[in-house]
Amino acid sequence: MPPDLTLGTPLVLDGGLSNQLAAQGCDLSDPLWSARLLADAPEQIEAAHAAYVRAGAQVLITSSYQATYEGFARRGTEREEASALLRRSVELARSAAGGRTGVLVAASVGPYGAMLADGSEYRGRYGLSVRELERFHRPRIEALAEAGPDLLALETVPDTDEAEALLRAVEGIGVPVWLSYSIDGDLTRAGQPLEAAFALAAGRDEVVAVGVNCCAPRDADHAVALAAEVSGKPVVVYPNSGEEWDAQARKWQGEVTFEASRVRDWRSAGARLIGGCCRVGPDQIAALAEVMRQEV
Predict the structure, then answer these.
(1) Does the predicted model carry a pTM greater than 0.85?
(2) Does the pLDDT value for residue 100 go beyond 90?
(3) Are 52 and 19 in contact (CB under 8 A)?
């Protein structure tokens, strides 16, 4: 079981796995994205996790964000092998921790849209019912839970329907979870008020934290306090670098606005799991960890 997040010093999460894999020379131009490497180059995934451990990360998020039975099936991967690959994502993170005490593994459960690999993970509203989304998520959640992670990261969730489906899917799994939305300003990516989104976590014992990820750092500033107020839970926050993806130009543009100094305000507002997402690498996580140490 993870520590009680209502007590003690906040934990440092890792940064973006894909950008670290790209820095290692990995080709991620595949519908499975980083999950392809679970089969083709697992040593690269372990090396990426290890880079974040060296930077001071205390929580490693697995490479299973885009790993689904449906996605693997499109590559011709049989269900039994797909289950083994899902479990491998947890094993690689655990191995990268190198037996260090205090380094936790959070198994990533990405949204339905990540499987579609068409950008709909940032829009939500897939035309599926809550029940249909629950049926999609439950099998891989069970496979990941079998591998014994410390937590499940229900992350980059674009709308409240999918959040409700995920929360139903983890009932009885026996692994604590965090619920993290991808947002745009004061709304989910699907356009729903954050108050309603965060309220879904209130009163659910299996949810140890609620918050935001894969968003602009400026949007995270307000969301942290709101998540704590509405849910009554500790908060998880790991935004992007602040750059924006230009789909037409196929490149990141804009300024980096992720600054380790933001940690102080996030922590004061109730954040207990703090890290980075897309384009936030080991150097930024090391700086964040140093700020956290200074705040003790």
Answers:
(1) yes
(2) no
(3) no
Secondary structure (H, E, C), the chain: CCCCCCCCCCEEECCCHHHHHHHCCCCCCCCCHHHHHHHHCHHHHHHHHHHHHHHCCCEEECCCCCCCHHHHHHCCCCHHHHHHHHHHHHHHHHHHHCCCCCCEEEEEECCHHHHHCCCHHHCCCCCCCHHHHHHHHHHHHHHHHHCCCCEEEEEEECCHHHHHHHHHHCCCCCCCEEEEECEECCEECCCCEHHHHHHCCCCCCCEEEEEEECCCHHHHHHHHHHHHHHHCCCEEEECCCCCEEECCCCEEECCCCCCCCHHHHHHHHCEEEECCCCCCCHHHHHHHHHHHHHCC
For residue 99, pLDDT over 60 is answered with: yes
Residue 278 marked in a binding site: yes
For CA atoms 123, 237, 98, 16, the dihedral sign is positive
* 259, pLDDT greater than 70: yes
Is 277 known as a binding-site position? yes
CA 67 centroid distance within chain: 13
215 annotated ligand-binding residue: no
Which residue is it, tokens 């993870």? 2
CB 90 within 8 A of CB 181: no
CA pair distance 296, 287, nearest whole angstrom: 15
Are 175 and 145 contacting, i.e. CB atoms less than 8 angstroms apart? yes
Length of the chain: 296
> Which sign does the torsion angle of CA 94, 263, 155, 229 carry?
positive
**Would you state the pLDDT for residue 21?**
97
Residue 5 binned pLDDT confidence (cut-offs 50, 70, 90): confident
